[in-house]
Design goal:
- Helices cover 40% and strands 15% of the residues.
- By secondary structure, the protein is α/β, with parallel strands linked by helices.
- It folds into two domains: 153 residues, Aspartate Aminotransferase, domain 1 (Alpha-Beta Complex), CATH 3.90.1150.10; 234 residues, 3-Layer(aba) Sandwich (Aspartate Aminotransferase, domain 2), CATH 3.40.640.
- The protein has a seven-stranded mixed β-sheet, with helices on both faces.
- Helix 4 runs parallel beside helix 10 and helix 11 packs parallel to helix 13.
- The structure holds pyridoxal-5'-phosphate.
């Protein structure tokens, strides 16, 4: 018999529809993938240049906390781009932000403890919580007030002696909302009042085109753990290089036990990532402008189709949409199984898996703006045509 922990963990809601997509491909249908957050921009060549220039004779295990030069590069990057003082000693290099989240959850919870997740949330937080035996407890952000950070009383209602931390991503996957200094202060006040850690996932921090982003490290508090990675900001998801940053020495010391257990992050990708972190402002401007134009295309298409309820993201590259359908997952599945427009269809992520409150997100989807403009526009046309057909078919039955 396998463990309760693993049996209770669910398949990624984003990847659940993959078998239907594979079947559609076998039927010769082209699929526009707006379902996963895999950026399509070219990984900057400096990544390879650093690796080739270094060409280590042996692909050795680096220090478990990561190459010192990379930890320095992260610290420098935070100083330069986020204007906060971070020492390389406060940076622990991980296998992507994913491992940093897993480390953070393992360190701050015992089995049976609870982590408050601002809902809707990045669906894998649920998986990581279950793997460490913790429960994710939702605190819901509402579309009607722009997915603002809920008031303290909303947190108090669900806080118990088992609550250990608050987790959120900023900018937010899936809503694209960006939180600023005041929001971070509000969260810290709540964390302080209830003796909690504040885990903030900042993987999208360079993709901000509206709103005023503030890194949680600017709070300068030992309750704060930030996770970050090169995946989204440098379009290097497969590098599997991220980090956990905190000024809390106790957390760092204990994170090292996990880091030593898994020996080291990947060597060559760490070397390449040093090059990425040294990139100048122009690169970030290019990334920001590219996603801004794309998000605009998606919002314009939705508007023109008469869809009223969708987020106008200030950051990240996702748009969440409330559809005039009862079950968005069924619709997304139908788009793959039964619909095509001139042998093309569009794949989106149903939002239900981003909520843990039953019933929420049922009629919502997330669109990832990860295709070049022309393809994105076409993908939206195909999606909206599919929606029109679905409504016609199901309103007449
Ligand atoms: C909010 C958020 N955090 C973390 C990750 C995973 O990051 P990484 O590739 O660095 O493990 C993702 C990937 O989609 C994400 O959206």
């Amino acid at each position: 018999m396998l463990s309760d922990r693993i049996l209770k963990a669910e398949e990624s809601p984003i990847r659940k529809l993959v078998p239907y997509a594979e079947e559609a491909k076998k039927r010769g249908i082209r699929i526009y993938h707006l379902n996963i957050g895999q950026p399509d921009l070219e990984t900057p060549s400096v990544f390879y240049e650093y690796i080739l220039a270094s060409r280590p004779k042996v692909v050795y295990y680096s220090h478990s906390a990561g190459l010192w030069e990379l930890r320095e590069a992260f610290a420098e990057y935070y100083k330069r781009r986020q204007r906060v003082d971070v020492s390389p000693d406060h940076v622990l290099v991980t296998n992507g932000a994913s491992e940093a989240i897993l480390f953070a959850f393992s360190i701050v919870t015992n089995p049976g403890d609870e982590i408050l997740a601002l809902e809707p949330f990045y669906a894998n937080y649920e998986t990581f919580a279950r793997i460490v035996g913790a429960h994710l407890v939702p605190v819901t952000r509402r579309e009607e007030n722009g997915f603002a950070i809920p008031e303290e009383r909303e947190f108090s209602k669900v806080i118990s002696s088992k609550t250990k931390a608050i987790v959120l991503s900023n900018p937010c996957n899936p809503t694209g909302v960006v939180y600023g200094r005041r929001d971070m202060e509000k969260l810290l006040e709540i964390a302080e009042k209830h003796n909690l850690y504040l885990i903030v996932d900042e993987v999208y921090s360079e993709i901000v085109f509206g709103g005023d982003f503030a890194t949680a490290l600017s709070l300068d508090s030992k309750r704060v753990v930030v996770v970050d990675s090169v995946s989204k900001k440098f379009s290097a998801c497969g590098a599997r290089v991220g980090c956990l940053i905190t000024k809390n020495e106790e957390i760092l010391r204990n994170a090292m036990k996990l880091a030593q257990g898994r020996l080291a992050p990947p060597l060559l990708e760490q070397i390449g990532s040093i090059g990425l972190l040294n990139l100048g402002d122009e690169f970030f401007e290019f990334v920001r402008n590219t996603y801004f134009r794309r998000v605009k295309i998606v919002c314009e298409k939705l508007e023109r189709a008469g869809i009223k309820s969708f987020t106008r993201p200030g950051g990240a590259f996702y748009v969440t949409v409330k559809l005039p359908v009862e079950d968005a997952e069924e619709f997304a599945k139908w788009m793959l199984k039964d619909f095509n427009l001139e042998m093309e269809t569009t794949m989106v992520a149903p939002l239900r898996g981003f909520y843990s409150t039953p019933g929420l997100g049922r009629d919502e989807i997330r669109i990832a703006c990860v295709l070049k403009e022309e393809d994105l526009a076409r993908a939206m046309d195909v999606l909206l045509e599919g929606l029109k057909t679905w409504i016609e078919v199901y309103s007449s039955t």
